[in-house]
Amino acid sequence: MTTKYIRNTLYVLLIGCTIAISGCKKLFDQPDINNNPNAVTNIDLPTLFGGTLLGVSLLHEDTDVRIASMWSGQLNGLNRAHLGYSQYIVSSQNFSWNTIYSVAGQARLIQLKADSVGNKWGKGIGQILEVFAIQKVTDLYGDVPYSQAFDGKSFPTPVFDRQQDVYKSLLNVLDDAILNLSATSGSAFPTKDFIYKGDVGKWKAAANTLKARLNLHLKNYAAAAESARLGIGTSGDALVPHGNSIGVDMNQNYDFFAVSRTGDTGFDGAYLPVLLKSRINSLNTKTDETAIYNYFFKTGITATGSLDPNTVDGAFIANAAHPILTYYENQLILAEAQARLGMLEEAVITLNSVRSRLSSGVFNGRTLPVAGRKYDAYTLSDFNRNGLANPTGSGSVQYALLYEIIAQRYITLLMQYEVFNDYRRLSSAVPVVELPVPLKTGSKKPNRFIYPQTEINTNPNVPKPLPDQFTKVAIYN
Closest by alpha carbon to 138, among 448, 455, 465? Predict the structure, then answer.
């Protein structure tokens, strides 16, 4: 993707394309609209929104997410390119900004078109979609173009903004989105909104959860807690719906695991099943996670004894909804922020809200099996040195409580790149509490994606010297 594409391109949307996830992958491979300047102006705002929401959905189920999951130890690469990825072997040729910046550009266009008709709700949702895209690119790459990213005429080779400045800008965008979504009237595209069906209150809550996430990354724990209290509720999960049609609307994880790249990745050698087994076979009598273990994993699909993604009757079936932002994440942000602020009793109450929902079996729009599903409420004493919820034997109740919260995040955020953010973030958060995720090779921890070669070739503002995959990004340094 050339810098002209990144900055100048707002792609032509295919009218009528709504939630056909696989079938519409080429949606973001259309020619530069500068070759057809009337194209976008002829697309109505709801259709533009529907296509952009589709783009955001794709960004949460793509190869980048699988790499992030492998680098954080949730998943393992076993064959072909993914074997190399799992060993942190990547080059600038492995990464692309084509889709992510085109989605962000379309989200910006939603805002401009919404402004032109006085639709504050539509603008607010467009702002949230922009944040989804730009947050992902800055989280994975660090410093990235943003302030000059959408004005190719004035800035054909845009500067790379400092990651801290990008985060500050995103928080400001979310504040403005919340104001716009608080307007007394507007249109929220209910016929095109396959996430929230035009429910402005749910979009507003999602904006608050995004604010909470960003502030957690920045270690602004009081602000994270404040936003999380206004965030996603039990009925507000942002889930991408899927169907059973190959090449049309099936879950992209199913397509990868069971159709197009069977055996390339799996859970043999990954840390996630190790963590879950340790929690199943523990002295913690209040917890049994056998159900979620069996929901995630299935033995023997690709080979005798292999531990595979459960594409048969679990998390990765063809029509499984994919999470973008959830109540589980919101509450675990709140719980961690409270624990780090020393509000330990409050943190236990919040953690128990997560455990109560897990006990009910509700997980990403489906229901976990009853057998092996136990999440009784904790008390603070459970995190004492000899407490049942203190597997490390720490003498610090705060440490033990944070360890449990972090472990629950690692489990419930399966196949979401936020786990890779945690993997890096926790090394510098105080107190330092990390899961013992082993390196797959060498002695260096993967810390970022590498800038795409097309950007290196065309933009002289790419940071120099070029950071490699082991160089920390600013906010986790």
Answer: 448
